[in-house]
Structures are given as structure tokens and as C-alpha cells.
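writing this on my phone so excuse typos. first protein, seq and then structure
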Amino acid sequence: MNLENDPDLASQLCREAQERLLLRVAGLDDGAMRAPSRLPGWSVGHVLTHLARNADAHSRRLAGALRGEDVPKYRDGQEQRSQEIEEGAGRAAAEIIADLHASQVTLEELLDQCGEASWPNGHFLGGGDYGAAGCPAHRLREVEMHHVDLGLGYSHLDWPEEYVAWDLPVLLASAAGRLDSPRARREFMAWLAGRGPLDPATSLAPW
């Protein structure tokens, strides 16, 4: 299964994932927003602010594709992304949640418009490595991964099967470049081949 090649299914899964996320965080207070997430150096507020800005970034690409314009996710690149996350993470819980909700609603409206228009200009890369038609799948990954990162009770065991069927092979294909030594690569390869246990100390760089 390649969800990048099936944006309609990816859009449906994305909507469901966003709804689960919003239900999970709807009752958070300011103290919960300041609590550490499972990502080093990031609070729950950082993760949710990132997810809101990521939704905006995908909306920007999709809106551009509808207009026939190949635009990047962020006007000013990763520096803009980092600044927006830091500035937004300290807001009141109600403001962060309302921002997340609004950004997700806008994205879902654009997913509908693109689907109705049969994903025009789905090949536009926006300076990245996947086409605009791949935005729903990549947004799904962001929501599913970072929902777990919040540390609020949602785990990898809750991931939908359709998501796992797509992203597990993708992440496995990236493993060789995310292992930090020749020994780690060999031990990981032997484990994948059923030729030995995986060393508990083996770690992969984050995707």
C-alpha cells in the first residue's frame, strides 16, 4: 500500500487521525501544556503548536496546487518553522487548542477541494521530496507520530493498520542511513534477516 498514490484514502485517514488528536487534547489545561512531551526539549505545547503549523504548511502547498502554483511548505524555510513553534508553545492551553482546531479545519477543507478537483498539480514538489498529492499521507504521519509523542495515553499500538502498512516499509527503507555505525548496521541487518537478536543498545536517528 502506498498512501502517497492514494490521496483520497490518505485524506480519510488524516481526518480520522486529526479528530482523535483533537479529542485527546480538548480538555488540557495550562499546566498540561507546559508538561514535557516525549520529545527532548519540547513541551506538549511545542508538539501541538508544531502540529498546527504543519497543518498550515500542507494547506499552503495544497492551496498553491489548486491555483497552479508550486509553493513551499514554509515561506521562509525551517527557520520560520522553528521560530513559530517556540513563539506559540507558551500560549494558554485554550489558545493552542483553538489554533490546532482551526488549522485542521482549514486543511480538511482543502483536502475536500483537491479531492473534488482530482488532485490537480499533484506532482508539484514545493522544494521538497514528495508531490502535493502526497500531502495527506505525510500529514497523517505527522499526526500519528506526534500523537504518541504527546505522552497522553495514545501509543504506537493504536496506529491504524492502513497507516502501518504504508509507513513501516518507508521507515525500514530509511533505516540504513539512520544507524550510526558499521556495527549497528550489521546487527540490524542480521536481525531483519532472522539471524540474531537485536542489540538493545541499537538506536535509530529520528526520522
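second protein below, same order as before
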Amino acid sequence: MSGLLAGFAPVERLALPDAELAWWPAWLAADAARELFAALQRETPWEQSEIRIAGRRLRIPRLNAWYGDPGAGYGYSGARLARHAWTPALAALRTAVEGATGHRFNSALLNLYRSGADSVDWHSDDEAELGPQPVIAALSLGATRRFELRHRGASLRHRLDLGDGALLLMAGGMQRHWRHRIPKESGVAAPRISVTFRRARPVRQWRADARVAEPIPGC
């Protein structure tokens, strides 16, 4: 992991309303990105999860895997993902991403888009386990894919082309006010891996933190 550029790659902060969005278009050096992609594609225990939509169970159009600290469970749309222990490469990557973003993470969701036929539809990463204001750092490896954003309450859209080695940070009210997707792209034949770092905790812990943070009456 000597090719990591944490703390040195230029960062761009995007002025979107109701959100905090920053990205490093070339956070990971090209050689390191190719090496990491090959290792993750080969070593990750990929699975194709099933989600529940309108009472039906459907396989998602991509492969995924969940890594995390003990107790960092996660699920979405009726799917619960099996937790895997950190590999040395992912542990080193987490440390580097934390250094670059200034945020701490205890888990990572990996997605493998095998070609442009794989995708993820409009959604927000607003599961209760991620807290009231989720912070998510997403590293892209492999093929460049289009990342689209759509505001929930206004006619606002934004697009980024996430290339090999790009790092994206979503924070603030991003998941509450915006939805995002990776659409299908018929012209893309090569695969892409996204590594999305998160902080997942039991809901009761987030609620306990909120109670502690409430102002004391009369003060």
C-alpha cells in the first residue's frame, strides 16, 4: 500500500445545498489502484444479495461483501450481510482513508460491478445503523462509472465520473436530502469495485449519544 496518496492528493469540495461532499479525483496512485483492485477481486468472498421490493425478493445487479469490527452489523432492504474480518490490505486502506478524511470508520461495504450491466438504483444510505448523519467514504477502483445525485426536495442534480483511485466523502445532511445511483452503462465492459467505509452501530447506541447531547433544561 505504499502508493497511497493520503493527505497529499488534491481535494475538491463541492458546493451542494443540504450536503457535505468532497472528492479526491486521483487519491490513489495508478499502480496501487491496479494492485488493490486485483487483490480485492481475487480474495473477496463475493455474494449476490437478495433484497425485498414490493413484497418480492430480487437479486441485486452486482456482487457485494461486508467487512467490519465485531458488532458492526449491517443490512438494507431486507438483506443482512455476513460480516468478514478485516484483511491486512483493507485494514491498511481504512487507516489511510481515515487519515485523509478525518473520520473514523468501523466497517466497509464492497461492491463489484462486473460490467456496465451492473448498477445500483436511486437510494440514500440512511439505514438506522449508520446514525442520524451518516458519513461515508467511497473509494473507486477499476472502470470509470457515472455517479449521479438527485435532491429529494428540489429540482437539483449533479454528476461525477468516478475513475480508478478516486475517493468520495459524503457527510452532513447528504443522505437525508439527496439520493444517488450508479446507472447502467452499455458501453462499459470492464469491472469496477467500490469500497465504501462506514460507521455502523446498534441503533440504541446512536439514541444514547443523542440523549447525552441534548441540552439540560434551564441551562
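The mean pLDDT is 90. thats all i got for now
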